[in-house]
Amino acid sequence: MRIDLHTHSTASDGTDTPAELVRNAAAAGLDVVALTDHDTTRGHAEAIAALPEGLTLVTGAELSCRLDGIGLHMLAYLFDPEEPELLAERELVRDDRVPRAQGMVAKLQELGVPVTWEQVARIAGDGSVGRPHVAEALVELGVVPDVSGAFTPEWLSDGGRAYVGKHELDPVEAIRLVKAAGGVTVFAHPAAVKRGQVVPESAIARLAEAGLDGIEVDHMDHDEATRARLRGLAKELGLLTTGSSDYHGSRKTCRLGEYTTDPEIYGEITRRAAGAFPVPGAGGAV
To answer: Cβ–Cβ contacts within 10 Å for residue 236, how many?
Structure first.
């Protein structure tokens, strides 16, 4: 069984539509894929309608959080998308994305970069606009060689010259909200130092005490030593460990199924969930 629990579509900052994503997941030999767009569930219905036979969809989202001034992402699985409190928070984050991106464009223009809001909006399309879309604009302009090259202190990383903050959840509150909506929480790429500052292990312990279910260990931004350290920490704290591609289509180099989750861990996630259930494919629309 091949299980990838972290992917993105055009509903946020991926380049595959939700329908394309599930078809590509099946073609990549996956048995289970989670659609976890940033702060939105807008892609779920399209993904379900197109779900090929033999592929199971786990509905979810990747929630924007901040702890002690450090940004982090919380993967939320199988929650009730209509639960009012969690829905309201996701809408606050989503509504803050446009003015935030416009603020980054303004800062880049002040730095002499000829980026425009129209360019960023075109790249984002119908997705939830975010830093990756601004980063892609910088790639188009030849300012940086690739999207990851824009996530540096010189440009868009936390605290960078063109960085602008947005509404973000406290992760303890995010855990509470997801639990209340019947979902399961996994801290995404908790030690991805190449993305910027990360929270210390003591903070992960605090989140575990608050009810965090797991941490994403096998991820392209974690080297082997980091993965080994995180596995030890997870064992110590009683947390589940997952593996995922963090697939964004052509926006990143990672491939669907590049890292996967153990079937026993997946089974435990589904057992803990009460807000929604995995959706088995029935041969969706082509």
So the answer is: 11
